[in-house]
Amino acid sequence: MSSVTAQVLTTVNAPYGAELSAHQLAELLTDLESAVTFNAMAFSFFSEVPADIQLDFLKEMGVSAAAASKVACQFSELSGYALPLAA
Question: Which of 53, 70, 56, 59 is nearest to 11 (CA)?
Fold first, then answer.
């Protein structure tokens, strides 16, 4: 596991006592339903992981930054909270 993946998973899993895998998180980041159901781990990724690390993780996991941005925009709109990838 890369240091980027380890940092991301620690950030999104630790507060919730979760054990989400990198692949599970990657799926949530491109699923608009994550925002609709306000998935805590996906929101944590978009709101607590630094933007450069978010982009590194997306690249490592082969996730489209554009697709993740759509989910971030939905989270931002629903929460009223500005998110880096929602720009």
Answer: 53
Whole-number Å distance between alpha carbons of 69 and 87:
8
**H or E, element range at 61:** helix 51-61
CB 45 within 8 A of CB 34: no
Per-residue pLDDT tens over the stretch 41-87: 999 999 999 999 999 999 999 999 999 999 999 999 999 989 999 97
Residue linked to tokens 């994550």:
34
- Dihedral sign for Cα 20, 22, 24, 27, please: positive
3-state SS assignment for residue 38: coil
Q: Which two tokens stand for residue 78?
A: 């629903």
